[in-house]
């Protein structure tokens, strides 16, 4: 127990040091600001999807509400702290899983967790995206299952309560992002393979069904609780429409570009060569027969998990960078399965050299750019005295907040919606996420009529509008005449122009 606590604290320290950069910024990613606004509104009694709309399941907003506790009421601070804790727990459970897979691996069992921490620094992993929050629940759920295997004999030891807890964890992961369903398929496949390899067919079938029933029991609990809550609040239909109907549109709308898809996967392989290269090496090694039967099946199950995650990543045909974070757990475990036996056979000096080379490579390719950004931020903020360096949202919010009155609306049409939170202004639309207006795909998903929405927003007479000058964009073209007629241009910051309403007598909103 004491060792596990020390390992967790070590992972926490490494994670905090490497993710310190994120604490200096009001926003890192578009998505996190929308989750923040919904969670903040929820904390004040506004049910998700009603006053502020999104198509994500409600689990991510619950995570952000938890962040408000960790940040002592400051959601921005809280979500950064929560991200550090989420990455730490995911790394810790990867360590525990690998320790169960190879109890004699020694210090090498730390490698998957450390690599996970490092590779969350890329692919938009510094932001509070859904992947950062559901992966700890998935890895913890997997550990609950792996912990039921007797390491000494390689046989299954039934632990019902641990399986129910694992199901609860996986159920909550599902409520953060429904595409966790692909991880669940991989887990179910892994359980079935283990049973059919270790016991006779009839017993394997019975064990698999029993394990599945216990996991399902746990899985149902958080999902049923969510459904009951929205039903009790009278907004079950809003939940279904936003998270199911809209997500069907999100998955099916748009075309696939083979060239762009290949380019996205090439960048992943290039930037995470250690992980993807190890996954490929695993296939070559089992093809050559250099691994035991158990190791071969372990590799095949992990590859099935990886392929299912690749399908999950590909479903929307968008290939946003943070989608690829979902593949990190199977990749990190594959790295361990491939290299742990070789590491164990090395002499002490060779082990040290191998670890030093790996550390140096990862530091130069992944860690150093983040450290450089952190140092530059500290220099320009503290030495040069520019408190808003590289944080346009905070600078815009400070400018706008100077003469806001209680009840004022602002409209953020072309900047990060975190400005609403930073200023405390009222939001004039149910759709504060600018891509819902600006992007054809998201406009289709949300069902927005741009002309109608603009009229509705301007009827509330927002004191400030933050926009961009992009004449080829339909939404900006509709907004431009109103800005020219009713607003004065105040200042342009990082390509975002702040407009102030001319008619000051009719600015303040009325509740």
Automatic annotation (TrEMBL):
<feature type="transmembrane region" description="Helical">
    <location>
        <begin position="352"/>
        <end position="371"/>
    </location>
</feature>
<protein>
    <recommendedName>
        <fullName>Glycosyltransferase RgtA/B/C/D-like domain-containing protein</fullName>
    </recommendedName>
</protein>
<feature type="transmembrane region" description="Helical">
    <location>
        <begin position="132"/>
        <end position="153"/>
    </location>
</feature>
<feature type="transmembrane region" description="Helical">
    <location>
        <begin position="321"/>
        <end position="340"/>
    </location>
</feature>
<feature type="transmembrane region" description="Helical">
    <location>
        <begin position="211"/>
        <end position="230"/>
    </location>
</feature>
<feature type="transmembrane region" description="Helical">
    <location>
        <begin position="273"/>
        <end position="290"/>
    </location>
</feature>
<feature type="transmembrane region" description="Helical">
    <location>
        <begin position="75"/>
        <end position="95"/>
    </location>
</feature>
<keyword id="KW-0328">Glycosyltransferase</keyword>
<dbReference type="InterPro" id="IPR050297">
    <property type="entry name" value="LipidA_mod_glycosyltrf_83"/>
</dbReference>
<keyword id="KW-1133">Transmembrane helix</keyword>
<dbReference type="GO" id="GO:0016763">
    <property type="term" value="F:pentosyltransferase activity"/>
</dbReference>
<keyword id="KW-0808">Transferase</keyword>
<keyword id="KW-1003">Cell membrane</keyword>
<keyword id="KW-0812">Transmembrane</keyword>
<dbReference type="GO" id="GO:0005886">
    <property type="term" value="C:plasma membrane"/>
</dbReference>
<dbReference type="GO" id="GO:0009103">
    <property type="term" value="P:lipopolysaccharide biosynthetic process"/>
</dbReference>
<feature type="transmembrane region" description="Helical">
    <location>
        <begin position="160"/>
        <end position="178"/>
    </location>
</feature>
<feature type="transmembrane region" description="Helical">
    <location>
        <begin position="297"/>
        <end position="315"/>
    </location>
</feature>
<feature type="transmembrane region" description="Helical">
    <location>
        <begin position="184"/>
        <end position="204"/>
    </location>
</feature>
<feature type="transmembrane region" description="Helical">
    <location>
        <begin position="107"/>
        <end position="126"/>
    </location>
</feature>
<keyword id="KW-0472">Membrane</keyword>
